[in-house]
Amino acid sequence: MGKERIAFIGTGVMGASIVKHLLQNGHEVTVYTRTKEKAEPLIVLGASWASSPAEAFKDKDIALTMVGYPADVEEVYFGENGLFQTAEAGNIVIDMTTSEPTIAKKIYAHAQTLGVEALDAPVSGGDVGAQNGTLSIMVGGDQMTFNRAVPVLQQFGANIVYQGEAGAGQHAKMCNQIVIASGMIGVCESLAYGLKAGLDLSTVLQSISSGAAGSWSLSNLAPRMIKEDYAPGFYIKHFVKDMKIALDESKKMGISLPGLALAYEMYEKLIEAGYGENGTQALLTYYK
């Protein structure tokens, strides 16, 4: 896959960094986001602007989408000005939103009727992973489509794994979010304990980050917690959405996930307290 004509829908915290990688690697990128002002820095770097997803995808090869909620995904693909209005046979659509597996399957099925290939490819790694081009990408769909898309995904991903049929990428992302949800409780309780014990938390991290307790959250988010830096690498409001999807899916499968349920309850309280626009590391405020 050489230099592609790409439509990118949703230039938020992570999406903007992904677009920068695509531009730096010589791809022609047209962007759409609800607020054009958010896309201005990308336009300055060479991206084109479109007034709708349909316009952005017209005469393009690939569409990448990264929006907020499942309802947004539905609108971006199936709406009056959605991608499927201008999709052409041979195109590829790749949804990187963390969304519902059933929507991924719906997109795949409709794409098939148009001769379009579809992948669900949610990512993990937060703002740092997007900036560094080291995201983990979990992909569902047809293997041949995955093989075609890998060269583009490699522009911003370092760990790109094919998970299986349509929807499998979203299920894998739920596994990822379940680990993070419970892990964030552990990170916050560790810092709360260390603080109460009168320890220097930065010194504590030097010891525990590289031991058996080590994790991405401990290495990347705990330092932000210590500085009371709650700027979003990943919004609490979106994390709550992800946990709700995982809880709903687990209920459908007949399994109980009490750790996830506890994390969901705690983050819900933070949203009620007005922290929805903060990063997930703001969970520490629950303990303060």
Automatic annotation (TrEMBL):
Annotated catalytic residues: K173
Record's keyword terms, sorted: NAD, Oxidoreductase
Molecular-function annotations in GO: 2-hydroxy-3-oxopropionate reductase activity; NAD binding; NADP binding
Keyword Amino-acid biosynthesis part of the UniProt annotation: no
EC number: 1.1.1.60
Source superkingdom: Bacteria
Enzyme class, spelled out: oxidoreductase
Pfam families assigned: NAD_binding_11, NAD_binding_2
Residues in 3-hydroxyisobutyrate dehydrogenase-like NAD-binding domain copies: 167-286
Any coiled-coil regions, as ranges: none
Residue ranges annotated for the 6-phosphogluconate dehydrogenase NADP-binding domain, each copy included: 5-164
PANTHER family from the UniProt entry: 3-HYDROXYISOBUTYRATE DEHYDROGENASE-LIKE 1, MITOCHONDRIAL-RELATED
Name the UniProt record assigns to this protein: 2-hydroxy-3-oxopropionate reductase
Lineage, opening ranks: Bacteria, Bacillati, Bacillota, Bacilli, Bacillales
Family from the record: Belongs to the HIBADH-related family.
